[in-house]
Write the structure tokens for this entry.
Amino acid sequence: MKFGLYYSLLEWNHDINDQKRVLRPEVVAADVRDIVIRYRPSVLWFDGDWGRPTSFWQLLPLLAWLYNESPVRDEIVVNDRLGQGCSGAHGDFFNGRDRFLAESALAHKWECCMTIGSSWGHNRNLSKACYKQPLEVIELLAEVTARNGNLLLNVGPSCDGCIIEEERAVLTGVGEWLAHMWYPAIFDTRPWSLAPVRTRDLVLYTTPKGERAGVVVYGIALEKGAGTEDQPVVVLAQVPPPTAVRAGPCAVHFAVSGDTVSVHFTQPVDFPLVLELTYGVPQKPR
């Protein structure tokens, strides 16, 4: 697991109209150098760049030091919150705005910054209805992964460092889904192509990185496309005919009609689930 640090270009303890709220360039430079040398982060996550250009904080010389001279120069990655005009244009990965979700796969790595509840950080005034359900986060994780993104899920420990029950239930639910043989479709994968992934696609595709890319394809089915509750069917459109289809411990058989593959389950199953499609040679979507 890699270690990252958050650094705000704004001082949150001051009122929004107080000039002291905006950190001076020399303070930013000293702070960043100190935390990088002291803690050796792999990720430096900037925030609070609203309304001012990169030149205001003199970030270019600082980034040059970070990438060329700092003790983490060989592995450090930085986001795009570096001043006006940088969002979605500069940075090792893009954040965009909070809760941004790309509608299609992006060529540049990006990150979806999402809250587990309705606020950032711990808020004891939130009711249980304000928190996401595990299924919501699982579907979001699948959508982000299939679009070449990473999911940054914000949780808020209480004052004694504990994760409250509502948040713990969500994290446990997501972890249990991943542990149920579905994790290969999420970790160390990339989109099966950079073809558009529509917001309401019922099946999202990823493939392993490296030699198995395109030989194994994962179809993350968010819900059934046909059939009954007892014998659901997942329909894969514009997919080359695979040599085999697996769905973890679930018994399936599949039929091919043109460029459509129908995967039939012989028993009730819980969605989302992952279909593993195997090919003799690397495949590209049609």
Summary: The CA atoms of residues 128 and 166 lie 7 Å apart. The chain is about 20% helix and 25% strand. The mean pLDDT is 90.
